[in-house]
Amino acid sequence: MTATLYAGEWQAAGACLSADPEIFFPVSGTGASAPQIELARQICARCPVRRECLDWAMNSGEMHGIWGGTTPEDRTRARRKDAARRRHAARRRWPAAPDIRAS
Ligand code: SF4
Question: Is residue 74 part of a domain?
Fold first, then answer.
């Protein structure tokens, strides 16, 4: 059984606490920022609260920085994919309504 960590608690256990915060806020998602992003991802990969961090970023709509090993672009893609999956699931649950205009 794992303990539930509440907001604030997981942040105190983050592997990034001893790292330079600048590493987690690259100026862009590509180019010269690529090595910085890779370093942040390496730190996140060994973080014991990565799941909580990513959940927080996804649920809060955080649009800046590396959280849970993801870039803002990664999270936007994940949100779009999730929204598409939900739309697809909703269509499968509810059959198309009959066209009552013809009657
Ligand atoms: S997952 Fe990354 S950004 Fe989140 S707390 Fe851990 S080290 Fe910090």
Answer: yes
- Contact 37 CB / ligand 1 (< 6 Å): no
Q: What is the pLDDT of residues 43-86, one digit of tens each?
A: 999 999 999 999 999 999 999 999 999 999 999 999 999 999 99
Residue nearest (by alpha carbon) to ligand 1 atom 2: 44
CB of 19 closer than 6 angstroms to any ligand 1 atom: no
Q: How many domains does the chain divide into?
A: 1
- pTM, two decimals, is 0.80
Does any ligand 1 atom lie closer than 6 A to the CB of residue 53?
Answer: yes
DSSP the chain: --PPPPTTHHHHT-GGGGS-GGGGS-SSSSGGGHHHHHHHHHHHHT-TTHHHHHHHHHHHT--SS-BTTB-HHHHHHHHHHHHHHHHHHHHHHSPPPP-GGG-
